[in-house]
Amino acid sequence: MLDILLHNARIVFPGDGVVPGAVGVKDGRIAALLAPGETEAAAEVIDCAEQFLMPGLIDPHTHFGFGSNDTDFRTESRSAALGGVTMAFTFHRSPDLRESTGPWRDRGNAQSCIDFAFHYGLTSQLHVETLKECAESFGVNSFKFYLMYKGEAGAAKGFTEIDDALLFSTMQQVARIKGGVLGAHCENVEVIRALRPPVKAAGRDDLKAWDDQSPDYLEAENVFRVGYFADKAECRANIVHLSSREGLEVTDYLRSKPRSAPLHVETCTHYLFMTTDWPSPVGKVNPPVRGQRDVDALWQAVADGRIETVGSDHVPRKRATKGPDIWTATAGFPGIATVLPILITEGYHRRRVPIERIAAVTSANVARQYNVPNKGRIAPGMDADLVLVDPDCERVVDPATLESFSDYSPYEGRTLKGWPTGTWVRGRRIVADGTVLADVADTPGGRFVPRWGDLSTRPAN
User: Fold this and answer.
1) Secondary structure of the chain in the HEC alphabet?
2) How far is residue 8's CA from residue 22's CA, in Å, rounded to a whole number?
3) Is pTM, for the whole model, over 0.85?
4) Cβ–Cβ under 8 Å, residues 332 and 313
5) What CATH number does domain 57-369 carry, 3.30.470.20, 3.30.40.10, 2.40.30.10, 3.20.20.140?
6) Is the pLDDT of residue 134 over 80?
7) pLDDT > 90: what percent of the chain?
8) Tens-digit pLDDT profile for residues 61-85
9) How far apart are CA 336 and CA 85, in angstroms?
10) Which CATH number does the domain 2-52+382-440 belong to among 2.60.120.590, 3.40.50.1820, 2.30.40.10, 1.10.287.70?
11) For the chain, what are the domain ranges?
12) Cβ atoms of 301 and 248 closer than 8 Å
């Protein structure tokens, strides 16, 4: 007997299509796929009312701990679950990753209601020297390098070792780790020093000013540097949170040449939805949001497969940190709960991007790129990480309902069409009708997911 039968669903197979039918769940795994009219005995039968049944989202880009270090795993995982996210990658950075990873993982295991994994943030020679040891000890084989923390900008954050030599030596080490991938924040902060003073002196306080002091070509230049060096180091690289058409054109060029290792591209929800017309300083983020031509170009790349993954870059700080002006406001904002509603509103409804493509960039491709076992697809034997979505459900974004430590949303007051109505993590329902279920508070149930091996032979989505 099945534990759960979700019937009368439109099952979304990432990259392949949508098929009516039912999904059976047993012992936390998908046990059966049934055609319309087929049935099996189950302890619980759920009528999906012809809504989309998708693989749970895997957010590849979050910053838990940037709000409340003590409680972010609890609050942000609940916010994630409301948005249909069943697993999140969060960046972990510390002076010595050997000492900090275990306690941070244990805190997540105790607090998170969704599964989670880490990307290591690499900022020093010690990190490079201990990379293999940490990867083997904790099952972390994805990493991030911060080109925007070079020189004076890095010193202000306490990072004094970031330069091109550290970048290249990091790539050499990552290339030696099976399944390893290096993400890079691409933004030439050294040239920003020449562009910012006149913009700031003009007294400007709009998002276009933030874009003008760090324009698209500074991202594009760094994209080329990362892609070129990664090829020479035979390192699999990922351009994270790509924001601009110009940066995309550089990735197209790099990919047009023979490469020693793949070059991946990720963007984030805000670059697909926000422009410099958004209110300032709430919309301040690094890299900056751009113009409508950039939004349109990035959506085209999502649709045609050049952009493989989409994340939130979720930063759960308070509204009080977003001011008083754009020059002193913190960068970044919360967004994990609204990834899917934005992609359905702007992609599926407005631009006719197929829902199976949205499922690919938010689940299957993330699992494949980051070597996540048993997640990202709806198939027998996979974890029963599922989200039921009503594509016609309209809601106004209200941060008070999103469960985050953060007390605002850059999208608040906006009406989005397409919201989750149910979320399951390994067969356990944790969200129903826009509410985290009561038992989740006492038994969150999420767990850390170590990743090993080269899963590149899995079929593309």
Assistant:
1) CEEEEEEEEEEEECCCEEEEEEEEEECCEEEEEECCCCCCCEEEEEECCCCEEEECEEEEEECCCCCCCCCHHHHHHHHHHHCCEEEEEEEECCCCHHHHHHHHHHHHHHHCCCEEEEEEEECCHHHHHCHHHHHHHHCCCEEEEEHHHCHHHHHHCCCCCCCHHHHHHHHHHHCCCCCCEEEEECCCHHHHHHHHHHHHHCCCCCHHHHHHHCCHHHHHHHHHHHHHHHHHHCCCEEECCCCCHHHHHHHHHHHCCCCCCCEEEEEEHHHHCCCCCCCCCCCCCCCCCCCHHHHHHHHHHHHHCCCCEEECCECCCCHHHCCCCCCCCCCCECCHHHHHHHHHHHHHHHCCCCHHHHHHHHHHHHHHHCCCCCCCCCCCCCECCEEEEEEEEEEECCHHHCCCCCCCCCCCCCEEEEEEEEEEECCEEEEECCEECHHHCCCCCCCECCCCCCCCCCCCC
2) 6
3) yes
4) yes
5) 3.20.20.140
6) yes
7) 95
8) 999 999 999 999 999 999 999 999 9
9) 8
10) 2.30.40.10
11) 2-52+382-440, 57-369
12) yes
**One-letter amino acid for residue 130 of the chain:** T
Amino acid identity, position 390: D
Tokens encoding 217: 């070509």
User: Looking at residue 455, what is its pLDDT?
Assistant: 39
